[in-house]
Design a protein that fits this description.
The complex is a heterodimer. Chain A is α+β, with helices and mostly antiparallel strands. Helix content of chain A is 46%, strand content 16%. Chain A has 13 helices and ten strands. In chain A, the strands form two sheets. In chain A, strands 2-3-4-5-1-8-10-9 form an eight-stranded antiparallel sheet, with helices on one face. In chain A, strands 6-7 form a two-stranded antiparallel ribbon. Chain A starts with a helix and ends with a helix. Helices cover 50% and strands 7% of the residues of chain B. Chain B has helices at 33-38, 51-59, 68-71, 82-88, 96-99, 101-112, 125-147, 151-172, and strands at residues 15-20, 26-31. Chain B has a two-stranded antiparallel sheet. In chain B, helix 7 (125-147) packs antiparallel against helix 8 (151-172). The longest helix of chain B has 23 residues, at 125-147. Classes of the chains: A alpha+beta, B mainly alpha. Chains A and B meet through helix 4, helix 5, strand 6, strand 7 and helix 7 of A and strand 1, helix 6, helix 7 and helix 8 of B.
């Protein structure tokens, strides 16, 4: 299985492909559904025996799903800490699944668009990823997979409360839709706080790149629905989509203002960012994110043409701790890691410029 | 954001929690690492956020005190007590939504501003309903049989459950 994981190293997966609608601002769209079976206690209350039984049952049902491309299954307990972190960085598993104990697993396809987690906080967490803004497409996909699974197992479903989940914050649709935005211009013009304040009337949550618990870094923000009860899936998605379009519009406006009024300063900023990435010998994760964010903005505004967007997206992922350690082939402590990160960035950007 | 100060001390805040509601209020909490740990929002540097602690911090004052009647509730199916649920925010089994319904509805109203599901329902659900109830019952009996070390009965129940689950699938699949 390790071989298979390492083969992912050369790609970025679906969500960083850098394509799809509004992909200069919208990095990716993700929808997840929380599901449980009627005949088992929730994961936190299940015995080791029940968890093993459930894992075997769901794994077997998932293996028989008629999906193309087919899903591969990984037993989380059989992976070392580095490989688990690697899957988190690729957003194939949640941190909760990484840190949980007992029998648990994940099934995903080679394009990394679909991921099915077993024995997470809920027994089954379905996830579909798309590059760019694609809420409807992602919903159609996950809705179909959900139906295929439900034809094989009995979900815990309640006439009044809908799909039952371990935490009441997810009950009802069990759906969390997240859109990841890159908003560097709103950061530079200091309008970002204002934008988030204007979302006040809608129940949306703003988080950093790696979801719950991660702070916003590199001007990446994940916006997702909070309410799962009393609103239909399509209703929630339409609301979220409307807000995303508004944010995209104001980010684009802020970019145009910067181009018009501060072009020289902006050109200097993005060129310096690229220069630092090409020449520094020590680079922290935070600084990398900040500089890559500026470079990404520079590419999207036509201020830099010697680096491509897919390369920058790839560097965002490859400079994360687990990816970096797998790429250089060994575990590294903080300082070694910063040196290795700078070396990797230098080499990668040099290849690109040749 | 980096200029924000922790609300509990005056160190620079590294954690910013925001909930947006349309009850004309936005709750924003800024915390430094040390205070986040003290408030048990962050347990260990590498671990995810303690969601129940956050929910408690943001919503805590709004939740009414637990009545004695609610405090005594225990789910006969999974054995979780209502107070345990209130402690860590997680329910024990699907059955709890019925057993704890009087306590849950105010919480759901606060979190979702609704108490009734709208949207998708599982297309095979009607067909599965009686079987679900039956399976729950069988699993319960299986646990009891294991509890009293009646392994012969347990094996019989296990086979029965497997048979039923297989039948379920072939009839709805």
């Amino acid at each position: 299985m390790n071989l298979q994981l390492d083969s992912l190293l050369t790609t970025t997966g679906e969500w960083l492909r850098g394509t799809g609608p509004e992909s200069d601002i919208v990095v990716s769209t993700r929808i997840r559904l929380a599901r449980n079976l009627a005949s088992f206690p929730f994961t936190n209350r299940a015995s080791a025996h029940q968890k093993a039984e459930l894992e075997a049952l769901l794994r077997e049902k998932i293996a028989r799903l008629d999906l193309a491309p087919a899903l591969s299954y990984l037993i989380i307990g059989s992976l070392n800490a580095l490989d688990r972190q690697f899957l988190v960085e690729r957003q194939l598993i949640s941190r909760e699944l990484m840190n949980a104990e007992g029998p648990r697993g994940v099934a995903f396809d080679e394009r990394e668009t679909v991921s099915l987690m077993i024995n997470e906080e809920d027994q089954l967490r379905l996830q579909v990823m798309r590059s760019g803004l694609a809420l409807e497409e992602a919903w159609q996909d996950i809705d179909r997979i959900d139906d295929m699974i439900e034809a094989k197992v009995s979900y815990a479903y309640h006439e009044q409360f809908g799909y039952l989940t371990a935490c009441p914050t997810n009950v009802g649709t069990g759906m969390r839709a997240s859109v990841m935005l890159h908003l560097p211009a709103l950061g530079l013009t200091r309008e970002i706080e204002k934008v988030f304040r204007s979302l006040q009337k809608i129940n949306l949550v703003v988080r950093g790149l790696y979801g719950e618990g991660s702070r916003a870094s590199g001007d990446f923000f994940q916006i997702s629905n909070q309410i799962t009860l009393g609103k239909s899936e399509t209703g929630s998605l339409a609301e979220l989509g409307g807000v995303i379009h508004q944010i995209v519009t104001v980010e684009r406006r802020a970019r145009n203002v910067l181009l018009r009024e501060k072009r020289q300063e902006l050109q200097d900023r993005v060129s310096r960012a690229l220069g630092t990435l090409q020449h520094a010998t020590m680079m922290t994760s935070d600084e990398t994110m900040e500089l890559l964010s500026s470079v990404r903005l520079g590419i999207n505004l036509g201020l830099l043409d010697d680096v491509s967007l897919p390369t920058v997206n790839e560097l965002f992922l490859h400079t994360q701790p687990a990816h970096l350690q797998k790429l250089v082939g060994g575990s590294l402590d903080g300082e070694e890691r910063n040196a290795a990160r700078a070396r990797y960035l230098r080499n990668r950007l040099r290849q690109q410029l040749q | 954001m980096s200029a924000m100060k922790c609300q509990f001390c005056s160190n620079p805040a590294t954690l910013h929690l925001t909930t947006l509601t349309n009850l004309s209020e936005k709750k924003v909490v800024h915390l430094c690492d040390a205070c986040a740990k003290q408030q048990q929002i962050v347990t260990e540097p590498a671990e995810p956020l303690n969601i129940p602690a956050i929910v408690h911090m943001l919503l805590g004052p709004h939740l009414s005190p637990v009545s004695e009647e609610l405090a005594r509730l225990t789910c006969p199916e999974c054995g979780i007590k209502y107070m345990e649920f209130r402690g860590d925010g997680r329910l024990g089994c699907p059955h709890d939504y019925d057993v704890f319904q009087p306590g849950l509805e105010p919480i759901l109203k606060r979190v979702h501003r609704a108490v009734r599901h709208v949207g998708k329902h599982p297309p095979h659900h009607q067909l599965n309903r009686e079987r679900q109830a039956e399976l729950l019952q069988l699993h319960h009996r299986l646990r009891q049989a294991i509890g009293v070390e009646n392994f012969e009965e347990a094996a019989r129940l296990r086979d029965w459950i497997r048979e039923k689950e297989a039948a379920d699938e072939s009839s709805v699949g």
